[in-house]
Design goal:
Layout (H helix, E strand, L loop, with lengths): L5 H17 L4 H19 L12 H29 L4 H24 L5 H23 L12 H21 L8 H27 L4 H6 L1
Helix pairs in contact: 1-3, 2-3, 2-4, 3-6, 4-5, 5-7, 6-7
């Protein structure tokens, strides 16, 4: 969905991409930076189990987590933008980006499950859905399809939804006297569980309508 705004975002952040190149940032370095942010965010999520991270107020930890998630999303945008604007597009760069993106989501969702912010079953269902969204695209493109980046909950949407939910829960903890445990993240994970698997279904139907289904169809191709 957010991919529809790709042209607008490209024009908006192109100066940032040029600035990143001037300070020596390459697409691969930006990709690795996003990966590092996911590790930092995961540590803050499970901060209640780790000393000295647990001395930081839970509300502040969640705010910091949301910032790392938004940072991850920005790195996702910036690495591709830098690669296209400078011509530094490589097969390995695409491979690295895809692999590390999967790790970042595993880290974040695993941390939320471990820290008790969501039901483990729903957390696993959401994580599986997120991984299958990417796998469905990769498999369809390997079969020869193009423009498979469709669906209601692609990676940018997932990061925005999760980041906003964590930010809101953190702000509530910092500004109100409500009970410590808020259900915002909990219900967001459940919503993402449905959205991710619905996106897989969207991509499945897209591939079903366009890929050959019989040997005769394969020969025609």
């Amino acid at each position: 969905m957010l991919g529809k705004f790709k042209e607008i975002l490209t024009k908006l952040f192109l100066p940032v991409a040029h600035g990143a190149v001037r300070v020596g940032l390459t697409p691969n370095r930006i990709t690795v930076l996003g990966f590092i942010l996911s590790i930092i965010g995961s540590i803050f999520i499970v901060g209640n189990l780790i000393y000295p991270v647990n001395i930081v107020d839970e509300g502040w930890r969640l705010v910091l987590v949301s910032l790392t998630i938004f940072g991850m999303g920005f790195c996702d945008l910036l690495d591709g933008l830098v690669a296209r604007s400078t011509g530094m597009i490589t097969s390995f760069g695409g491979f690295l980006d895809s692999v590390l993106d999967r790790y970042t989501e595993v880290f974040i969702f695993a941390a939320l499950i471990i820290a008790g912010y969501c039901n483990p079953i729903w957390g696993i269902i959401t994580l599986v859905g997120a991984l299958l969204v990417s796998y469905a695209r990769a498999r369809a493109e390997a079969a020869g399809l193009k423009n498979v980046g469709i669906g209601i909950a692609e990676r940018p949407e997932r990061l925005v939804i999760l980041g906003v939910a964590i930010l809101v829960q953190g702000i509530i903890l910092l500004t109100s006297s409500l009970p410590t445990q808020q259900p915002i993240i909990y219900w967001t994970i459940i919503i993402l569980a449905f959205l991710t698997h619905f996106t897989v279904l969207q991509r499945f139907l897209y591939a079903y309508k366009r890929l050959p289904k019989t040997y005769a169809d394969e020969k025609k191709e």
